[in-house]
Design brief:
Oligomer: single chain
Protein name: BCCT family transporter
InterPro entries: BCCT_transptr
Distance between the termini: 6 Å
Radius of gyration: 22 Å
Shape: globular
Family: Belongs to the BCCT transporter (TC 2.A.15) family.
Strand order of the largest sheet: 1-2
Subcellular location: Cell membrane
Number of strands: 2
Organism: Jiella pacifica
CATH architecture: Up-down Bundle
């Protein structure tokens, strides 16, 4: 048997063959029963929500607070465990294990790799919340009470500013990227080192054994499809809201549900073109373009904004984040219910619902990295970039707000970014760039998500027929439209939390499974075992 550096090894710890349960008819190559069940449930959901929008609105309006108020401690505690797990791996001997074997080489350079990480992982979220969240937390901290992080700092402008930035960075730094990292590492390791299919079920092989190819594995993959689709739809909905708000702010185009639906439809169409182009020609090029545009916008705001305050803020906010890290991570005995359940719990559920999508996408582009290099790059570097991003955009907005400008505070969430840019030079140009960034992040997220869902529902095949990717990209847009029509952003958030909840539990077992697999690999690499048995690898 032979293997190329960009392929999964031809030998495996199991006799299971990728695609052996697949149905190949009418030009399709779909896993049975993961694809039929997933597709049927999604189609039924879309039909129900469109036919009975009132029921859907009431259901999602009840769902989010029901889960967040009951299980907030579970989400927060799980997030803490993921961060600790990643940091332990970095300093442990297991960090020397290389994804794909000791001779594997990275397929993508650092720039292309980082670009795809950010475009898939947080692009739309950073644009949507980069201004709105720091300003919201600052205002809440000034007022004090349960809606403020750690009950706020009433009347103390500087303390409220530091707390608002620390509370924001907490949501975008170590914790979310640790959630992504544990999933991506597990998928990459078990696929590239043990020769298992690139699906969520493979990550549980040390715990399930060959039962991973039966119903326990089917259930895991089906949940992963739902989580990916609804988590992605949440981000697409946010992106559509912000793009529509920006077009209204900039050009006076009516902002409403019709605009959101039209935007989602048009951008999903662009995503379909990217899907057909494939990973290298589609996602990577769009990701790199967006990374350059985001960097240009970041540098512009830094240079024309309150530059010296922002320089001080990067260091000061990092210190504030470090100082408040333990109190903000504490899942028990807190009084800030509005912040803890309304923000943190939603975020962690959102990241967890996105984790199959982002984790699998990161895994697909991370072959050849050591575990230590992988976690350092996926965890630490994005944390640094997130601190800089939130400081520049949020810090500029706070300076404008504290200076007496009330437009940002008074604006809707999706328009706060454009209100902030409106106080700087070249506002028309930078606001337009902001809209382009949101749209392209929208396209890359939809594109990447359809590739990932298609891989799961094709039984781990990474070269499944294009029509299947078109099907999933289309339904990502339909689900986003359906959720917006059936309750707006509250419905989007409720769907993300509902799918993130089971994944909070699954991911805890995933950490255990990954540790067992890495420990065994550290003792004797799987490929060496195969060579000892006479395989040519």
């Amino acid at each position: 048997m032979s293997s190329q550096q960009t392929e999964i090894p031809d030998v495996s710890v199991t006799d299971y063959e990728v695609g052996q349960d697949n149905i190949q008819r009418f030009g399709l190559d779909i896993h049975n029963p993961v694809f039929p069940i997933s597709a049927s449930v999604i189609i039924a959901f879309v039909a129900f929500a469109l036919l009975f929008p009132g029921l859907a609105d009431g259901f999602f309006g009840w769902l989010r607070p029901a889960i967040t108020s009951t299980f907030d401690w579970l989400f927060i505690l799980a997030g803490d465990i993921f961060v600790l797990f990643c940091l332990v791996l970095v300093v442990s001997p297991l960090g020397k294990v290389r994804l794909g074997g000791q001779d594997a080489q990275p397929e993508f350079g650092y720039f292309g790799w980082f670009a795809m990480l950010f475009a898939a992982g947080m692009g739309i979220g950073l644009m949507f919340y980069g201004v709105s969240e720091p300003v919201t937390h600052f205002s809440a901290a000034m007022a004090g009470g349960a809606d403020a992080p750690l009950m706020g700092a009433p009347g103390d402008t500087e303390a409220a500013r530091r707390l608002g930035m620390a509370a924001t960075i907490y949501h975008w730094a170590l914790h979310p990227w640790a959630i992504y990292a544990v999933v991506a590492l597990a998928l990459a390791f078990f696929s590239y080192n043990w020769g298992l299919p690139l699906t969520m079920r493979s990550a549980f092989y040390p715990l399930l054994g060959d039962r991973a190819w039966g119903w326990p594995g089917h259930i895991i993959d089906i949940i992963a499809v739902f989580a990916t689709l609804f988590g992605l739809a949440t981000s697409l909905g946010f992106g559509a809201e912000q793009a529509a708000g920006g077009l209204n702010y900039l050009f006076g185009i009516p902002d409403g549900m019709v605009s959101n639906v039209v935007l989602i439809t048009l951008i999903t169409g662009v995503a379909l073109v990217s899907v057909v182009a494939g990973l290298d020609a589609g996602v990577r090029r769009l990701s790199e373009i967006n990374m350059v545009l985001a960097l240009l916008l970041l540098v512009f705001v830094f240079l024309v904004g309150p530059t010296w305050q922002l320089v001080q803020g990067i260091f000061g906010n990092t210190v504030a984040y470090a100082r408040e890290f333990i109190p903000l991570s504490n899942p028990f005995g807190r009084m800030d219910d509005g912040y803890r359940t309304g923000w943190t719990t939603f975020y962690w559920a959102w990241w967890m619902s996105w984790s199959p999508f982002v984790g699998m996408f990161i895994a697909r582009v991370s072959r050849g990295r050591t575990v230590r290099e992988f976690i350092t790059c996926v965890l630490i570097i994005p944390t640094i970039v997130s601190i800089i991003w939130m400081t520049v955009f949020g810090g500029t907005a706070l300076t404008e707000t504290i200076g007496g400008f009330s437009g940002i505070v008074d604006a809707d969430l999706e328009v706060k970014l454009f209100e902030m840019l409106g106080q700087l030079p070249l506002a028309q140009i930078t606001s337009f760039i902001g809209i382009v960034l949101v749209i392209v992040f929208f396209v890359t997220s939809s594109d990447s998500g359809s590739l990932v869902i298609d891989t799961i529902t094709a039984g781990g095949k990474i070269d499944a027929p294009v029509p299947q990717r078109i099907f999933w990209a289309t339904f990502e847009g339909l689900v986003a439209i359906t959720l917006l029509l059936g309750g707006g952003l509250a419905a989007l958030q409720g769907a993300a939390i509902a799918t993130g909840f089971p994944f909070a539990i699954l991911l805890l077992f995933l950490c255990w499974s990954t540790w067992k697999g890495l420990a065994e690999e550290r003792k004797q690499p799987f490929l060496e075992k195969m060579k000892a048995k006479g395989y040519k690898v």
